[in-house]
Amino acid sequence: MHPLLAADLERLPDLLEDARRHAVAFLEGLDERPVVPLARTPAAVPLPARGDGLSAALRGFAERWEPGLSAGAGPRYLGFVTGGVTPAALAGDWLTSTVDQNPMSSLDPAGQLLERETVGWLRELFGLSDGHEGNFVSGATMSNTVGLAIAREWLGERLGVSPAEDGAAALGPVRVLSGSPHSSVAKTLSMLGLGRSALVPVATLPGREAVDPAALERALREGAGPCVVVANAGTVNTVDFDDVRALVALREKYGFWLHVDAAFGAFAALSPAHAHLVDGVDAADSLCVDLHKWLNVPYDSAVQFTRRRDLQARVFQNAAAYLGPLGDTPEAVHLTPENSRRLRALTAWLTLRAYGRDGYREIVERCAACAHTMGEAVAAHPGLRLLAPVRLNVVCFTLAENPTADRLAALAREMSDTAFLTPTVYAGRPALRAAFSNWRTTADDTERVIKALTAAVDALPGGAPAS
């Protein structure tokens, strides 16, 4: 064994304790850390020919890279839709690396069995029936990819071909209809060989991001052949929800594949006040849920569900002498693009075991309350305009006067020490989004964000208009 490896192995308990202390110091400093530090790029250094052990490597990381890291795990990182890491999920992530399991084969079954139990817990958490079977994937993009790959095979089933065997060209022209699809849907269609042009936009309801069911029916009636409909349970800009029950009724009439992108909107099911938003989602043919959002587990983690595991295995089956057959319960290696990966389910299992449905209901309801508080503050400020109702956990707003992308970027930079907001465009207007999904975020954090936002608006050239 190399002497540095041997020395680190001998001192491993002490070195892990050093890493623990470093992690605790980072977490304890989140409240005072700039949420997004000013850009700082360390000078490049060459790969060392001779290392100097873990202790020196930890010091090098702390000196060169840690100062530029955001407080993404903290309570005022409101960009994108980003959760933090619950204490149980953090412990789960450390244990995941410690046990270093590849849960893809029944020849070494414990990890795979743990994942199946966790998928069952998640199915129950989101109010899904046993008709849905699921697997862990890396994120919402891959969850959408798996769901739409199954949909592609379903299209082939209707046409008497198998894209998995014959290629996507065997399908001929394909239509994928959606009102406000996430950008990952077009990316997925490109990867699946269906093409970005297969995505057909459908009109949304006035002033909404939710698809207009009447417009969708016209598109279904006018087209030929089987198609796919991508419904949204929580759009990125305004957390708008398609009327999935209405779409299910249309499916009965027109016979399409219904994929629901519920990356973070699925968590509305945990709150009695918001559960109506996801009515009908259980009827989906495939479903996307992202776990490193509101479940607050570390990157990367998501789950995909489908009612057609037989088609899923047809797409992703992997033949090798060392793998088990498909059978009635296919191994995980036959169900997603990856042949090997880490035991993603352990972080989810531990945090669900630790905090249960009630703990996650409280997180969802607290985040929603924080979003509503900020939405009310934005609506009351003369220099700001709320662009959509706060339906769940996202506040979408812009400047009342001269809302250019540059001015909004300057506004976000001005408050970046206190909070991180991401830019967007809604209804043709440059805007900012604040997404509340971190388990640490409290009413006090929300007040800090509101004060920082008010000060940043006043600091812009021209300031706030007179009320």
TrEMBL record:
<protein>
    <submittedName>
        <fullName>Amino acid decarboxylase</fullName>
    </submittedName>
</protein>
<dbReference type="InterPro" id="IPR002129">
    <property type="entry name" value="PyrdxlP-dep_de-COase"/>
</dbReference>
<keyword id="KW-0210">Decarboxylase</keyword>
<keyword id="KW-0663">Pyridoxal phosphate</keyword>
<dbReference type="InterPro" id="IPR015422">
    <property type="entry name" value="PyrdxlP-dep_Trfase_small"/>
</dbReference>
<keyword id="KW-0456">Lyase</keyword>
<dbReference type="InterPro" id="IPR015421">
    <property type="entry name" value="PyrdxlP-dep_Trfase_major"/>
</dbReference>
<dbReference type="InterPro" id="IPR015424">
    <property type="entry name" value="PyrdxlP-dep_Trfase"/>
</dbReference>
<comment type="similarity">
    <text>Belongs to the group II decarboxylase family.</text>
</comment>
<dbReference type="Pfam" id="PF00282">
    <property type="entry name" value="Pyridoxal_deC"/>
</dbReference>
<dbReference type="InterPro" id="IPR010977">
    <property type="entry name" value="Aromatic_deC"/>
</dbReference>
